[in-house]
Amino acid sequence: GQQVMQIPQYQHVQEGEDFTTYCNSSTTLSNIQWYKQRPGGHPVFLIQLVKSGEVKKQKRLTFQFGEAKKNSSLHITATQTTDVGTYFCAGPSNAGGTSYGKLTFGQGTILTVHP
Amino acid sequence: EPEVTQTPSHQVTQMGQEVILRCVPISNHLYFYWYRQILGQKVEFLVSFYNNEISEKSEIFDDQFSVERPDGSNFTLKIRSTKLEDSAMYFCASHRRVIYEQYFGPGTRLTVT
Fold first, then answer.
1. What is the dihedral of CA A69, A93, B32, A44, to 10 degrees?
2. Fewer CB near the terminus (10 Å): N or C of chain A?
């Protein structure tokens, strides 16, 4: 079945440093979504990328979708303590054509920001 | 802003007991899901539900699991005979349109002893 891999598993940064997490899918994706989960919280939608090569920015966050639509990245510039949490990429499964929005999540990258 | 709600927030049960986890999705949403997350691990899909029936289920979702939408608002996950390995956070999620951002509830932490 579809697999979504994410690296690194952990990232510890000093406040102000940049952070990047990478996501790779075993299959071509129709779109990719990114979620953030704060410690003890639930996944919260950040963004959805649909087009090949798409780049989207949200303030200090930059999201990219690969040309082959199998990989994606999230880059945070000048991290802040409020950025702490686990960042997940997730791709919809199109198996059988009836799975609607079923998401396959990557393992997540746990970001720790030291003040 | 509308949100998905889940009850209870924490459920402790003994192995072999039945549990029902409840969710109230956002009112105009049409697609409903249950996911689970074992502590420290990734979020795993369990089941999707649309038009009053299961549209897909994972290998995890065996005969011990069932879902219902008994009325226009609630969406429930039942585990008939809980096992120790069912201990996890269970998230309900919903969305309005196909392939769209999913709104997750705060989760129910299920502890099976």
1. -40
2. C
Nearest residue, CB atoms, B104 vs list A42, A98, A108 = A42
Instruction: Find tokens 């996950």 and name the residue.
Output: B77
Could you read off the pLDDT of B14-51 as tens digits, one per residue?
Answer: 999 999 999 999 988 999 999 999 998 999 999 999 98
**A91 membership: H or E segment, kind and range:** strand A85-92
For tokens 């991290």, the residue is: A79
Q: Which residue has the tokens 């998230």?
A: B91
Residues of chain A with a CB closer than 8 angstroms to some CB in chain B: 30-31, 33, 35, 41-45, 48, 88, 90, 92-93, 95-96, 98-108
Q: Is a pLDDT exceeding 90 seen at residue A92?
A: no
Strand partners of residue B103: B94
Asked if the bond preceding B25 is cis, omega within 30° of 0, the reply is no
Is the pLDDT at B109 greater than 90? The verdict is yes
